[in-house]
Structure formats: structure tokens, C-alpha cells
Specification:
Radius of gyration: 14 Å
Distance between the termini: 42 Å
Order of helices and strands: EEEEEEEEEEHEHE
Structural class: mainly beta
Length: 148
């Protein structure tokens, strides 16, 4: 049984629920808690697909020049290589499961995040957090993109 790891990652609270070590590197499962107004930087994953499943609130997904608003019970698959960013444009905290296949993204979260978090951060990621993301992203097959 895996003990859940909780950390702050790019302004979002992330619980690592299932790791690649537990699944033979087949997948990992994360739960994200995203405060209003917090968005990931635009990026693409070169190694894994992401499936987003909304548990509470609204999760916005910008990809392919469009914005999709996902509500509770809705899911979206983001194929590897597809540029995107996720965020919360609503007024309430959003919570979602993120299923990554294969695993590996959870290692990036571990290294780029900060442990010891107990609640969702109230602000967007600061320059230090974004610099940490940028310095580690290439090693984990994540390409950070310019804002559009």
C-alpha cells in the first residue's frame, strides 16, 4: 500500500496517489486541488498521455486554440505531444484526478514541487517555482511553451 505524498506544485496542491513504482511504470495517478485563478504554464508532455477527471468545481483546459470547461464527472484525454494548459477560471476550488500513462510525471512533481503542504496554495506560482519547473522540465520530457 502506497502512502499518499502531498506537495505544492506550480501553485496547485498535488497528492500522488499511485506511483509508477507500484504499476511497473505503466501509469501514475494524481489528485490536484486547484485554487481559483491558478493555471499551469503552457506545456506539452513528450512521454505520457494525461487523462483529467473532474471531482469538484470546474477545470479549464486550453488546447488546440480552444478552451474546454470540464465539470464534475467529465473527463478529457490529452495525448502526448499536445500543447495545453490547465486552470481554474471559476470562483471555487477545483479538484481533479490526473491519470498519466506511462508513469514518470509524478517524479517531476516530486522534484519540482515542495513537500509539507496541507492545503491548496492561495496564489499563482511565483518566479522561484516557475524557475524550478523550467530547470527540470527537459529531463522529464516536458516542454514549457511561450504564453499565447
Amino acid at each position: 500500500m502506497h502512502r499518499t505524498e502531498t506537495m505544492t506544485f506550480a501553485g496547485t496542491l498535488v497528492d500522488i496517489l499511485v506511483t509508477g513504482e507500484e504499476t511497473g511504470r505503466q501509469f501514475s495517478l494524481l489528485r490536484i486541488t486547484n485554487p481559483p485563478g491558478v493555471w499551469t504554464p503552457p506545456h506539452r508532455h513528450l512521454n505520457e498521455e494525461e487523462t483529467i477527471y473532474v471531482l469538484s468545481g470546474q477545470v479549464e483546459v486550453e488546447t488546440g486554440g480552444k478552451t474546454c470547461s470540464l465539470s464534475v464527472g467529465e473527463a478529457m484525454i490529452l495525448p502526448r505531444g499536445q500543447a495545453h494548459r490547465l486552470g481554474n477560471a471559476g470562483s471555487e476550488t477545483a479538484e481533479a484526478l490526473v491519470f498519466c500513462t506511462p508513469s514518470g510525471f509524478e517524479q517531476f512533481v516530486r522534484e519540482a514541487g515542495q513537500t509539507g503542504a496541507t492545503s491548496a496554495p492561495a496564489q499563482v506560482p511565483d518566479a522561484e517555482a516557475l524557475a524550478r519547473l523550467g530547470s527540470l522540465s527537459t529531463r522529464f520530457g516536458i516542454e514549457l511553451l511561450a504564453s499565447t
